[in-house]
Amino acid sequence: MKLMKKIGWLGLIVMLAFTTITGGLGTLSVAANTPFDLDAESALLVEVETGKIVFSKNADVALPPASMSKMMTEYLVLEAIHNGDFDWDTVVTTSPFAHFIASLDGTSRVWLAQGEQRTVEELYTAMAVYSGNDATVALAEQVAGSEQLFVQLMNEKARELGMTNSHFVNSTGLPNSMLGQHIHTGTESDENLMSARDTAILARALVREYPEVLEFSSIPEIEAGYFDIEMINFNWMLEGHRTGTPLGLTYQGLDGLKTGYTDLAGNCFTGTAERDGVRLISVIMKSETQQSRFVETQKLLDYGFNNFELNEVVQAGEIIEGYETIPVAKGKQKELPVAIEQALTTYMYEGEEELYTLEVVMDPELVDEEGRLIAPIEQGTAVGEVRVVYTGNTEYSFIQQDQTSESLELIAQEDIEKAGWLRLFMRSILEFFSNVWVSIVEGIQGWFS
Which residue ranges make up each domain of the chain? Predict the structure, then answer.
């Protein structure tokens, strides 16, 4: 590695340039956020591990997501299961409201009868595979007692996840205008709203925290018998899908996540696929047709998988060359060994390896004006962080707007106790006479120069 050092008031910064892994492209200017246009009002492509966005179009415009809203319901149900509030075998009794939702013509439903009893797993399957609105309402009521209270949870979770351009009025994504006297949040003209960025934030949280959701969303179809109707997944990109296969829309590695459609929302799709250990999430909002939302998703996923790679730039436990130790002030030892305890990766355009550096920044609360760590320091303390810095011309961003780079904590590898006053006093005397001696020697050398 090539080593570059620079010192700032925040502490010590080291820049480490990587050697070329594959040559050929050199310095490359790629507009990663606008490589092509799409048949969609809004769109986004993000790599899941790093949260790096490599394509965006109107990503912060709030639009109706239709049934993609159900990803929040999926998240909150899984959260409740993990919290022990109920389990997959818990029996849910269909309420009058859930039965009303089952009666709405032109919607996806599994025809739940009032008083009908189904397990959480059955209802979740109907929601994730067939976008069953009645099943979704039944699950929302199971979590919160009523859909109105559940919607409050949806909006609270959105804020918690950092979804700044979202607002929910129901659990399903149906237009409020269809709910008649059952409207409980908002007005008759309201629908749920999410931006493409917020949709991707939600999808990323869902697959990272509760990957079991993919076991449901990846099911192409379920024969009649599970419910009284055949449930064919609206996601035509699933491998083996009866509609997508003859149309050439199925996509290797794609296992979710959620489609959506209303007159106002148009055709929407949040897709996710994994290849060679890399998982991407794509969002298409307000596309023209059922088929076009999948065609545009293919473009996005192909762009990500064919042009970018996830590279490990620092291994777990690696010690940064040139900064094996950090100077310590007022400690029994004068230096502290530090290391990164996890691997640090970045998602980069192929051939741009030389355009990435590492920046190591010490915690300004833990260092003095000279950049030395102040004792005492306990082993395992995060004394700074290591950031991946891109020096090329491409404009990248991250799914969370306050994130500027991938980073990991720099960890103290041993305890450093604070030195006693006598040790510090003797050390200052030695340093004084050492400096005096250096001055004398330099002066003598000056006589003969």
Answer: 2-26+311-412, 42-287, 420-449
Q: How many other C-beta atoms lie within 10 A of the C-beta of residue 210?
A: 16
Pairwise CA distance, residues 237 & 422, whole Å: 73
The torsion region of residue 312 among left (phi > 0), alpha (psi -120 to 50) and beta comes to beta
Out of 3.30.70.2750, 3.10.450.50, 2.60.410.10, 3.40.50.2000, the CATH code matching 2-26+311-412 is: 2.60.410.10
> For residue 416, which phi and psi values (nearest 5 degrees)?
-125, 115
Cite the active site residues.
Answer: 67, 70, 131
From the number of C-beta atoms within 10 Å of its C-beta (0-12, 13-18, 19+), residue 267 rates as: buried
Closest to 100 (Cα-Cα) out of 90, 113, 119? 113
The size of the chain, in residues, is: 449
**Confidence class for position 312, pLDDT limits 50, 70, 90:** confident
Token digits for 186?
């908002």
Higher per-residue confidence, 376 vs 238: 238
pLDDT digit string, tens, across residues 129-183: 999 999 999 999 999 999 999 999 999 999 999 999 999 999 999 999 999 999 9
Q: What are phi and psi of 12, to 5 degrees?
A: -90, 135
Asked if residues 203 and 272 have their Cβ atoms less than 8 Å apart, the reply is yes
How many CB atoms within 10 Å of residue 421?
7
Report phi then psi at 419, rounded to 5.
-75, 145
Q: What are the residue ranges of helices labelled H in 131-261?
A: 133-144, 147-161, 196-209, 213-217, 244-247
Q: What is the mean pLDDT of the chain?
A: 86
Q: Report the alpha-carbon distance of residue 434 to residue 32 in Å, rounded.
A: 56
- Say which amino acid occupies 337: P
What is the spatial distance between Cα 201 and Cα 218, in angstroms, rounded to a whole number?
A: 20
The mean pLDDT of 324-337, rounded to a whole number, is 82
Give the other-Cβ count within 10 Å of 239's Cβ: 14
What pLDDT score was predicted for residue 396? 86
Nearest to 251 by CA among 270, 230, 271, 268: 271
Question: What's the token pair of residue 447?
Answer: 């006589």
Domain 42-287 homologous superfamily, CATH: DD-peptidase/beta-lactamase superfamily (3.40.710.10)
CA nearest 168: which of 189, 152, 184? 152
CA distance 92 to 139: 8
Mean pLDDT value across residues 359-372: 88
